[in-house]
Amino acid sequence: MRRIILKQQEFSELSGDILRYLRFESRGASMSPLIRSGDILTIQAADVTTLNVGDVALYRNERGLLIAHRVVGKRTQDRDMALLIRGDAPGYPDEIIQASQILGQVTKVQRGEKIIKLGQRRWHKVSILWARFLSLSYMLFRLARRMTKKTVLRCLIRV
Description:
The chain has one domain (8-158): Umud Fragment, subunit A (Ribbon). Helices cover 30% and strands 33% of the residues. The chain has 3 helices and 8 strands. The chain has helices at 8-18, 121-146, 149-158, and strands at 21-25, 40-44, 56-60, 66-77, 80-86, 95-98, 102-111, 114-117. Strands 1, 2, 3, 4, 5, 6, 7 and 8 form an 8-stranded antiparallel β-sheet that branches. Strand 3 and strand 4 form a beta hairpin. The longest helix has 26 residues, at 121-146. The chain starts with 7 loop residues before the first helix and ends with a helix.
């Protein structure tokens, strides 16, 4: 396979034009533990009607960067369908994205020789549970950030 290295902006512009089926190397930790920096993602064309809670969507944010985050809800906003999106790693807030921002759906994650097919029944169930759990984990993360070390120590001493 031929390998081409593009800058983020070049990749973003090109992928929006040709996206039917695309593979690229991920960067960042916002989707950890499912997707890690260096994993190869396979993207297939999708839109707001084909994406469901638990799916991982590829979209273009307001700054033009490509982001892959999990769908945690669907909303109607100004009579148009929008998606509620969030990274899997703790500390990433919800983001509402419009249908026009969606480029596709992550269908496979390749880490070395291991391939995770996200469309398989077992991974789909895990994805739905994870999407539901994300709300709880985010609330716990925010609560923990508010607690001082002193409060944490008092709680531990009582146990």
